[in-house]
């Protein structure tokens, strides 16, 4: 499914086109995709680019079809095989595969009984040195027999009218000496001496090529060779070099490869999962095993384990977001069809949420599980800081919260505007729907920093070290490590005034979030003007084939959340040496690495939307995350500190306050007119980098 512009109605009348201009017109293959796209525009719902259902094969482009095609299709004209990707294959894999096959062929010839397989390996050595433009076929033959003169007679002819006459890789029937016992002995020698080494080599090639992504055709080639070609009897394998205009008709084509690399494989998906997320999944396993098995740090240090844990958060956040999108997208379509909720429907909130009858629950579930990535890390860090009595962890959490807020307000929409502006000169968005998020953002920032402003007005300024710069008792003093003390007079100011204010704010902010949901999704849903159009969508008549079932999405969501908690625990366990030994300010570590790495999947989604001239979703991605940080994540952390006392207080440093408020004001000024270009995006990105420079050169917070 895809969001379309008003041009979808070009073949209709002008009246219809005018209605398309007023409304946000969407096109979708089926009801499930339509509801997923509709939820993308709604406040409080996770914005997701990937498809929830499988796209019909006939509706895909030729480029995408080629990605999923097996390497057994012979094209009439494959063009020149001398390409950069093919040369790369020769340098990375071809030469040593050729050498290995030659060595295995020599071993099989030495055994005498494995000579037929030795001949096969000799032919395959030349094939895998440069497999492009060649074909491997499985043919049906009679067992060759020896004539009285000793010549070998085969049951298949030596040439084919379509394959042409003699070729450099001409197939010759291999004569089997004896029958029965000799044949079994020959195969046993092959399976013991030849096949294991070659299968292991092809497995290594397969894994390496798959991880490189653009070389996935090589991975398919190696996998098919190990699982099909090497397990066939030698006389059933035919290797030929194809002519440009010839197509063989006899025999099953097992392998036929023309290109080793394809740059479009970044679009490749396995059961709806992007190939990048698939390749990063083993990283999660390595991180968990290395982190919990090597606790004394014998194999690797804390810095490596922290980096691995942080990188593992990226694919896990992708899986969580994808599971939420599939659960809610599918549930909305089914709920819309039924028009009511059953008890089982209510129990499976994640897998069957109806946007019509239970929209608030669906939005809250999206918000809570959408924030689970950050919350698991924050809570783990606060617990560790409380156990060690180290206030630095609480300051790092505050820096990460501020960094997420500033990054999602400035960097995410700014980067999307710059990249989208390269393709589109000017981009427009729904200023009214964006205004709702902006108003909530103003409210949330004001509420979150209200206790900080209150403490600065009524708190007592305490400095750790002061020097008289004028040698005059009444002159100027230079003080260091100053902060507002809230615990003066046995903490009367904090416990009697600041803490009640924090609890009050933590109750009002989630309530305001629910009011925003009710306003945008129920009473004023018309501000989105979402219109599902059936204009020239070739696959709209197909039934939906959902990638994941309800229970599968639910299990993946829970498992990803569990692994996320484990990775967050490992990250907080091994961050202490980095905080103590690093020369970089802890402020900078919090606002960059800890804040933005978990948001990388959201940034990628925003860029994809911007490239499709759908800047509304790119802006809403950043705004919704920022609103959730202030209205949901921070109140949850405050609630957590009630039941598990930690060093976390809702009093931020001046730098956090000024950076956040300035970012929100600038964002609202830029988005005031409902249109933008790459220049305005550049301004937002540059301001973000200026703030990062401020954090980089700022001294470490007190307590670190």
From TrEMBL:
GO terms for CC? endomembrane system; vacuolar membrane
InterPro entries, per database record? CaH_exchang (IPR004713), NaCa_Exmemb (IPR004837), NCX_ion-bd_dom_sf (IPR044880), YccF (IPR005185)
The membrane-spanning stretches of this chain are 87-110, 193-218, 273-293, 305-325, 346-369, 400-422, 434-454, 501-521, 553-572, 584-604, 625-644, 650-671, 678-698
Database matches in Pfam families: Na_Ca_ex, YccF
Q: Which UniProt keywords apply?
A: Antiport, Calcium, Calcium transport, Ion transport, Membrane, Phosphoprotein, Transmembrane, Transmembrane helix, Transport
Main location per the UniProt record = membrane
Instruction: Give me any GO biological process, just one.
Output: intracellular calcium ion homeostasis
Domain called Sodium/calcium exchanger membrane region: residue spans: 355-450, 553-695
Tell me where in or outside the cell this protein is found: Endomembrane system
Molecular functions (GO terms): calcium:proton antiporter activity
Please give the superkingdom of this protein's source.
Answer: Eukaryota
Which membrane topology term applies here?
A: Multi-pass membrane protein
| Gene3D superfamilies xref list | NCX, central ion-binding region (1.20.1420.30)
Q: Which segments constitute the Inner membrane component domain?
A: 85-134
Annotated protein name in UniProt? VNX1 protein
What's the source species' lineage?
Answer: Eukaryota, Metazoa, Chordata, Craniata, Vertebrata
């Amino acid at each position: 499914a895809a969001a379309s512009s008003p041009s979808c109605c070009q073949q209709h009348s002008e009246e219809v086109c005018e209605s398309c201009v007023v409304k946000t017109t969407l096109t979708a293959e089926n009801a499930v995709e339509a509801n997923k796209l509709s939820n993308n525009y709604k406040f409080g719902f996770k914005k997701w680019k990937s498809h929830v259902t499988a796209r019909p094969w006939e509706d895909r482009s030729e480029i995408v079809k080629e990605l999923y095609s097996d390497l057994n299709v012979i094209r009439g004209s494959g063009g020149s095989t001398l390409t950069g990707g093919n040369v790369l294959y020769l340098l990375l894999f071809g030469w040593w595969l050729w050498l290995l096959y030659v060595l295995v062929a020599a071993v099989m010839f030495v055994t005498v009984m494995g000579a037929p397989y030795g001949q096969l390996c000799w032919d395959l050595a030349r094939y895998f040195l440069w497999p492009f433009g060649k074909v491997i076929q499985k043919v049906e033959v009679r067992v060759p027999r020896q004539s009285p003169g000793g010549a070998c007679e085969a049951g298949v002819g030596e040439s084919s009218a379509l394959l042409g006459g003699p070729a450099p890789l001409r197939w010759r029937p291999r004569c089997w000496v004896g029958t029965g016992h000799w044949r079994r002995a020959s195969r046993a020698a092959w399976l013991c001496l030849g096949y294991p080494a070659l299968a292991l080599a092809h497995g290594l090639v397969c894994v390496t090529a798959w991880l490189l992504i653009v070389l996935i055709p090589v991975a398919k080639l190696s996998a098919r060779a190990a699982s099909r070609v090497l397990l066939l009897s030698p006389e059933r394998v035919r290797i030929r070099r194809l002519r440009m205009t010839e197509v063989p008709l006899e025999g099953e084509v097992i392998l036929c490869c023309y290109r080793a690399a394809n740059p479009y494989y970044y679009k490749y998906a396995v059961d709806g999962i992007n190939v990048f997320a698939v390749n990063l999944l083993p990283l999660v396993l390595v991180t968990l095993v290395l982190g919990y098995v090597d606790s004394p740090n014998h194999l690797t240090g804390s810095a490596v384990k922290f980096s691995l844990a942080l990188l593992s958060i990226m694919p896990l956040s992708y899986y969580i977001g994808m599971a939420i999108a599939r659960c809610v997208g599918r549930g909305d379509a089914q709920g819309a069809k039924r028009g009511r909720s059953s008890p089982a429907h209510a129990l499976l909130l994640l897998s069957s949420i109806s946007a019509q009858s239970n929209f608030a629950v669906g939005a809250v579930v999206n918000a809570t599980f959408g924030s689970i990535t950050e919350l698991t890390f924050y809570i783990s860090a606060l617990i560790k800081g409380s156990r060690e009595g180290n206030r630095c962890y609480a300051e790092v959490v505050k820096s990460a919260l501020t960094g997420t807020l500033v990054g999602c307000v400035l960097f995410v929409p700014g980067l999307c505007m710059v990249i989208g502006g390269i393709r589109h000169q000017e981009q427009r968005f729904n200023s009214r729907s964006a205004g709702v998020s902006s108003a909530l953002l103003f409210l949330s920032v004001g509420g979150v920093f209200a206790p900080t402003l209150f403490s600065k007005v009524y708190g007592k300024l305490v400095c750790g070290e002061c020097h008289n710069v004028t040698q005059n008792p009444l002159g100027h003093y230079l003080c260091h490590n100053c902060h507002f003390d809230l615990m003066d007079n046995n903490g009367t100011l904090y416990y009697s005034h600041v803490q009640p204010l924090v609890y009050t704010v933590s109750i009002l902010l989630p309530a305001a979030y629910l009011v925003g949901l009710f306003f945008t999704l129920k009473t004023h849903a018309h501000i989105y003007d979402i219109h599902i159009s059936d204009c020239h969508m070739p696959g709209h008549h197909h039934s939906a084939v959902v990638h994941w079932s309800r229970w599968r999405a639910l299990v993946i969501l829970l498992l990803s959340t569990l692994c996320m908690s484990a990775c967050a625990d490992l990250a907080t366990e091994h961050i202490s040496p980095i905080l103590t030994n690093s020369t970089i300010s802890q402020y900078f570590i919090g606002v960059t690495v800890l804040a933005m790495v978990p948001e990388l999947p959201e940034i990628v989604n925003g860029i994809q939307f911007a490239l499709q001239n759908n800047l509304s979703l790119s802006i809403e991605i950043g705004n919704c995350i920022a609103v959730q940080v202030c209205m949901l994540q921070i109140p949850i952390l405050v609630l957590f500190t009630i039941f598990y006392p930690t060093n976390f207080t809702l009093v931020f440093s001046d730098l956090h306050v000024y950076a956040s408020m300035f970012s929100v004001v600038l964002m609202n000024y830029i988005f005031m007119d409902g249109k933008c270009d790459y220049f305005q995006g550049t301004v937002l990105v540059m301001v973000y980098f200026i703030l990062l420079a401020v954090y980089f050169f700022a001294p470490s917070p007190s307590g670190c």
